Prior knowledge:
With about 140 residues, the protein is α+β, with helices and mostly antiparallel strands. It is about 45% helix and about 20% strand.
Amino acid sequence: MAESDQKKLLKESGYSQTAIRYFLGREHVGQLADATTTVSYKGPCGDSMEFMLKIDGDRIAEIRFQAIGCAASFASGEALSRMVEGMNLEDAEHVTEQDVLNHLGGLPDEKVHCAKLAIRTFRRSLYDYLLKSETATRPTL
């Protein structure tokens, strides 16, 4: 399918221009060979996501993700990646599903859960790092 056809279909389905741009651009999709932590999570909808973080001190120096899912999963993963790259760990831990949705300019109602998938997977990645470095107690997810 041509990119112009994809854009038209996504727009007609209720995706914002930002969500469409992030889905098609996918700047943060891929592998991160020297990742400090890598965690995968499969959501209740069947989509799955994996975040790879490179932590430098108390900052997220680099982030990549992969997903098996719909356009909203990729757009949400891309939005979250753009939001937290360069952020300190404490601030990144407080990014919410609503923050991702706001950054995207919304998603179709039936796709809002994809922002939650991105947040849950990302938080599990952060907690994995923190637990391995013994700087945090067992998190509640």
